[in-house]
Amino acid sequence: MIIGIGNDHAAVELKKAMMEHVTSMGHECIDYGAQEGEKMDYPVPGRAVAEAIVRGEIDKGILICGTGIGISITANKVPGIRAAACSEPFTARLCVEHNNCQIIAFGSRVIGEGTAKDIVDAFLHAEFEGGRHARRVELIGAVDEMYRRDAESADTDDGGQA
Ligand code: RB5
């Protein structure tokens, strides 16, 4: 798999450890995040990884900021993306099996390297179960679609000037 990884300045060390971990499992890892000594606000890597998934350039994403919250909120703003912030492996597995999440997010100020590795393992090994979960994931997509259509019609709305 090709895994995209993104982090802000609060998570450079944990990002490096996760890159090593992911590549040691035989995956390719593309780094969209902050480097040592660089300040990067979490929406920047959150958006970059989410958009790379939508464009089909990477298969899955790992996002890390201080809490995992800001970076996952950002990723979830990209239509079609389902990103889960979590602090333990159970949720990391279920967010794929039930929610078909393409991105896992966690916080460098919340969990240590060992738990982060367990989360990444659970996330990468899980498979979407489909069935009744597929209908629910489609309903999530319908929300995206509804707001996309509203935005498009607002773009073409001439405000009653015609
Ligand atoms: C940066 O200090 C911090 O706010 C960020 O890493 C993250 O925790 C935001 O959700």
How is the topology of this model organized?
Layout: E1 2-7, H1 12-24, E2 28-31, H2 43-54, E3 60-65, H3 69-76, E4 83-85, H4 89-97, E5 103-107, H5 113-125, H6 132-156
The chain binds D-ribose.
Would you give an account of this structure?
With 162 residues, the chain is of the alpha/beta class. The protein has a single domain (2-156), classed as Ribose 5-phosphate Isomerase B, Chain: A (3-Layer(aba) Sandwich), CATH 3.40.1400.10. The protein has six helices and five strands; from the N terminus they run βαβαβαβαβαα. The protein has helices at 12-24, 43-54, 69-76, 89-97, 113-125, 132-156, and strands spanning 2-7, 28-31, 60-65, 83-85, 103-107. Strand 1, helix 1 (12-24) and strand 2 (28-31) form a beta-alpha-beta unit. It is globular. The model has no long low-confidence stretch (mean pLDDT 96). Residues 8, 10, 42, 65-67, 69-70 line the site of D-ribose (RB5).
Short characterization:
The protein is α/β, with parallel strands linked by helices and 162 residues long.
| Sheet/helix structural class | alpha/beta
Q: List each distinct ligand once.
A: D-ribose
Indicate the CATH class.
Alpha Beta
What characterizes the major β-sheet? 5 strands, parallel
- The first-to-last residue Cα distance is 51 Å
Q: Provide mean pLDDT, rounded.
A: 96
DSSP summary: helix tally: 6
Radius of gyration: 17 Å
Question: How would you sum up the global shape?
Answer: globular
Assembly context of the chains: single chain
Task: Name the poorly predicted regions.
Answer: none
Q: How many domains, in number, for the residues? A: 1
Q: Indicate the proportion of strand residues.
A: 5-15%
